[in-house]
Design brief:
By secondary structure, the protein is of the alpha/beta class. The protein has ten helices and ten strands.
Length: about 325
């Protein structure tokens, strides 16, 4: 595959954070005043409601306000951070590594976004592969020849979907690709316009939950040799499962893979601003109602693949 990060490189990059976290310089608050721009994801995923959780917490505990914007998520968000159009964003940890190092997806190759900085990792982002309840699709290999929604064009979801399909032997030309947000993708499943959709997010994902309740779904496993190959080909994937009864009609756990969601910023945001926002969120994790079982101070640097912003380093020590 073309994704050239191996396990040793990933572990080295993550370990180097501790040595280089304080090396960045702090810039001025690029937000202009006390309003900070925060780029999330589609309204049907986890990024958007979680970002609005953070908005409430930050505004209740600091002098700053967050302007939360719905976006195409990870790949779009790293571009916004690099251009300093956003002060903070939620992204996947694999996309963070790709962006900073100028590797991975074609859109990021050869153009390292060296100003992007990490704040904290949050929770596992679980790969959901959704079909209609009676589709008869049971494995990733069954998607050969199918019409598949791989997520918004340029999103982390699309990156992950294409990685998994390629590992399973399904390459460009072997399927018909469509690209929309999660809400539209689940509508397409309901209407029979597509055979399957990839949705990436912390379970339960709202759009998937709604579809499971209104029309029924089936979840395609990523398991066995396929899962081992996926994790060998792309080392940022980890084993995961969607618990039984997470979604209506899914009575058994579904094996799959996941990455980590994380908060990122850029080196033009003032150290004091990042420290204030980080402190507000992680001193008030009990006020979070999205993925709260995963978001803790102790786990907030697990899987961090890029250098920390000095403001985050000041909080986490």
């Amino acid at each position: 595959m073309s994704y050239d990060l191996n396990r040793r490189q990933f572990v080295t990059a993550a370990g180097a954070v501790g040595l280089t976290a304080l090396a960045g310089c702090s810039g001025s608050d690029s937000a202009g005043g006390n309003t900070l721009s925060w780029h999330a994801g589609g309204t049907g995923g986890t990024y958007y409601p979680l970002s609005n959780n953070f908005k409430t917490i930050v505004e209740d505990n600091t002098d700053y306000s967050l302007q939360v914007q719905s976006t195409g998520a990870s790949l779009e968000n790293v571009g916004s951070l690099n251009r300093e159009d956003a002060d903070f964003a939620l992204i996947q940890n694999d996309v963070a590594y790709f962006a900073v190092n100028g590797t991975g997806p074609e859109e990021l190759q050869g153009n390292p976004m060296e100003n992007i900085r990490g704040v904290a990792t949050l929770y596992p982002e679980t790969i959901h592969v959704i079909t209609q309840a009676d589709s008869g699709i049971e494995t990733i290999q069954d998607l050969d020849g199918a019409t598949i929604n791989t997520g918004d064009a340029g999103s982390g979801t699309q990156v992950n979907a294409l990685q998994i399909l390629e590992t399973a032997g399904i390459e460009e030309g072997d399927f018909t690709e469509q690209n929309t947000d999660f809400d539209t993708a689940t509508d397409q499943i309901r209407d029979g316009d597509i055979d399957a959709a990839f949705v990436v997010g912390g379970w339960p994902v709202g759009s998937v939950e709604n579809l499971a309740t209104s029309a029924g779904i089936s979840l395609v496993e990523i398991s066995g040799e396929t899962r081992e190959n996926v994790m060998n080909d792309a080392e940022w994937f980890a084993e995961d499962s969607i618990p039984a009864d997470t979604y209506n009609g899914i009575s058994e756990a579904v094996e799959t893979v996941s990455m980590q969601a994380m908060i990122a910023t850029h080196d033009g945001v003032d150290e004091a601003v990042v420290e204030a926002v980080t402190t507000a969120i992680f001193d008030n994790v009990d006020a979070i109602d999205q993925k709260s079982e995963f978001i803790t101070v102790d786990s907030a640097q697990d899987g961090m693949p890029i250098d920390l912003h000095p403001g985050a380093a000041a909080y986490f020590g």
